[in-house]
Design brief:
284 residues, alpha/beta, Rossmann fold, eight-stranded mixed beta sheet
Length: 284
């Protein structure tokens, strides 16, 4: 598991790419957008510079590992000769299944195909390939360089060998892994979306301000980040897609809060748009 490809150069993709490269693995990042690739390259450079400032790694090693990362718009180039390919695109099933169909044709037979989905079925995604036993979900958490957990989600056909290799990969990049059997929302997202949605209902009902609700969760339950801060970080559009999926699969208790729907319609998507439950226009 030395040669890794990451499909999608967004926040999660670039975080996964940095973590793998920092651990000394060979990494190639693919995205259809040159702008996204450029932004990813800049962000990864800053991550390595931060690691040097923190004295986690020497400048020479940081430069060497950063320079080994390749960037391309061609999925065929990214998939060639890879041991593990991690898809990290938007939470849209049709997009993910389309990518997996391509990867099945383009990667070598031994390659493991992983989706970074936070809610969707790896069984359904794997069914689009001729190698469902080599497919699974690797759910990383944002920000990837800081967050220690990977949920290793097993699809119906995922083999034990694939699971063991995936866990070995996680350990090789300094992460802790938990094995989760597939069910909508897995473990973390299933609980986190419920907490976040209830926090949004509380804002809508006037129970408290976003600041006070988040403060209560951080100080009262020892959460490192409040649920509304976290939703803004993830992106309210992403959270809404997750809620729709969980509502469809798990029922009424996951019905998206009306204020979440309203904010997304208004373009208030959180940190990435400058405004969500908080205003970031003075901090960006």
């Amino acid at each position: 598991m030395q040669n890794i490809a990451v499909i999608g150069a967004g926040t999660m993709g670039r975080g996964i790419a940095y973590s793998a490269a920092a651990a000394g693995l060979s990494v190639i990042v693919q995205d259809v957008s040159n702008t996204s690739l450029h932004n990813a390259e800049e962000d990864i450079r800053k991550q390595f510079e931060r690691a040097v400032r923190k004295e986690w790694v020497s400048k020479e090693m940081a430069d060497e590992r950063r320079d080994t990362i390749q960037f391309t718009t061609e999925i065929s180039e990214a998939a060639k000769d890879r041991d593990l390919v991690i898809e990290a695109v938007l939470e849209i099933m049709e997009l993910k299944t389309s990518i997996f169909k391509q990867l099945d044709d383009l990667t070598p037979p031994h390659a493991i195909l992983a989706t970074n989905t936070s809610t969707m079925s790896p069984t359904e995604i794997a069914a689009q390939t001729s190698r469902p036993e080599k497919c699974l979900a690797l759910h990383f958490f944002n920000p990837v360089p800081k967050m220690k957990l990977i949920e290793v989600i097993c699809g119906l056909e995922t083999s034990e060998d694939t699971i063991n290799k995936a866990i070995g990969f996680g350990k090789s990049i300094g992460k802790e892994c938990v094995k989760i059997n597939e069910f909508p929302g897995f473990a973390v997202s299933r609980m986190n979306c419920l907490i976040g949605n209830e926090a949004m209902n509380m804002v809508m009902e006037g129970v408290g301000t976003p600041e006070d609700i988040d403060k209560a969760m951080k100080l009262g339950l020892n959460h490192p980040m409040g649920p509304l801060e976290l939703a803004d970080l993830v992106g309210l559009d992403t959270r809404l897609r997750n809620m729709h999926y969980l509502y469809e699969t798990l029922g009424e208790k996951y019905r998206p809060c009306p204020i979440l729907i309203k904010y997304v319609k208004a373009g208030r998507l959180g940190r990435k748009s400058g405004k969500g439950f908080y205003d970031y226009t003075y901090t960006n």
